[in-house]
Amino acid sequence: MTSPKTRFDALYSRHLTELKLQGKAQRTIDGYSHAIRRLRDYLGRCPDDVTTEELKAYFVWLVDARSWSAVKVDRNGIAFFFRHVLNREWEWINIVKPPVEKRLPDYLTPPEITQLLLHTREPRYQVFWLVAYGTGMRLSEVLNLQVGDIDRHRMLIHVRQGKGRKDRFVMLPEPLYLLLRQWWATHRHPQFIFPGRRINNQPAPVVMDKGTTQKAFAKAKVAAGITKHVSIHSLRHSHATHLIERGLSLTAVQQQLGHTCPKTTAMYVRMTEQCKADIQGQLNHLVNQQLPSMQALSAATEGETV
Fold it and tell me: What is the predicted pLDDT for the residue at 275?
């Protein structure tokens, strides 16, 4: 007879295997596997014989102890474990119903973005934030931007493996392209647009640190006297909201942001009041109005391009 630990280890291993075979993203695998470990720790035994009443008690505890986002991840992770590992029917999917919330995220006005840029002397952060704002790309997408992702002829950025592991193209404002050329010329990394610090005078093998970038944003926000609950991701919200304010269609904004569902993009209509057209012109305007606030970059060598 196998021990409880051995039985759990075998089931947990199958859980991980099934998640990988179904092509789940690493973040999903981490969340779903953590859910099973947490349930085991709560029960004090292997959860293969857990009852509905025990699950109800578990989720009562979880709702009190964790956020609703964590509750939803655990619900989905345990449901996956039931269906694909235990081969048991998931009959109580509605046992946990997170409240439906319709929150609107905070976003920054153009003057507030100008103040953010003025309150950091680090060109790498200034350029990084302006790319996030001027293209609507996510933090991780900007962070992993490579030289080969810039299409200077079509004025596009190839976003590789974005959210949901999907590729897409986003339009690149011309003034932002010129700024990226100037920024790249200050470090000339053969691969990354935003590389980490050089090691022994050699090009960094990794990109700029995510945590450091977020801390720099938070520091600049305080220095600029901005009290809104905003982060680097808020620059994406600001990008979408300002384009809609200037009249760009929801379809164009949806494509730029890479939203699968138009309802997600429609949220920004509730964050603005105005409307117009021409995506390239509007993108150029967004970036151009911020350029005067940029700190001077090191002089770039003539002829060097991204």
Answer: 42
Distances in whole angstroms, Cα of residue 9 to Cα of each of 4, 36, 90: 9, 11, 22
Longest dimension (CA), the chain: 74
Q: Are 247 and 176 in contact (CB under 8 A)?
A: no
The verdict on whether 153 is a catalytic residue reads no
pLDDT higher than threshold 80 for residue 16: yes
The answer to whether residue 259 is catalytic is yes
Q: Which residue of the set 15, 138, 168, 221 is catalytic?
A: 138
Q: pLDDT tens digits, residue range 221-254?
A: 999 999 999 999 999 999 988 888 887 888 888 8
> Does the annotation count 268 as an active-site position?
yes
Catalytic residue among 14, 45, 181, 233: 233
The residue annotated as part of the active site, out of 15, 75, 237, 259, is: 259
Could you tell me the pLDDT band of residue 283, with boundaries at 50, 70 and 90? Answer: confident
pLDDT of residue 15: 94
> In the annotation, is 233 catalytic?
yes
Q: Known catalytic residue: 270?
A: no
**Whole-number Å distance between alpha carbons of 1 and 123:** 64
Amino acid 279: pLDDT: 60
Whether the Cβ atoms of residue 276 and residue 246 lie closer than 8 Å to each other: yes
Mean pLDDT of 19-24: 90
- Vertex 68, ends 67 and 73: CA angle to 5°? 105
What domains sit in the chain, N to C, each tagged with a CATH number? 4-95 (1.10.150), 110-293 (1.10.443.10)
Say which residue the tokens 């302006």 belong to.
Answer: 130
Which of 168, 236, 239, 246 is catalytic? The answer is: 236
Active site (annotated) includes residue 138: yes
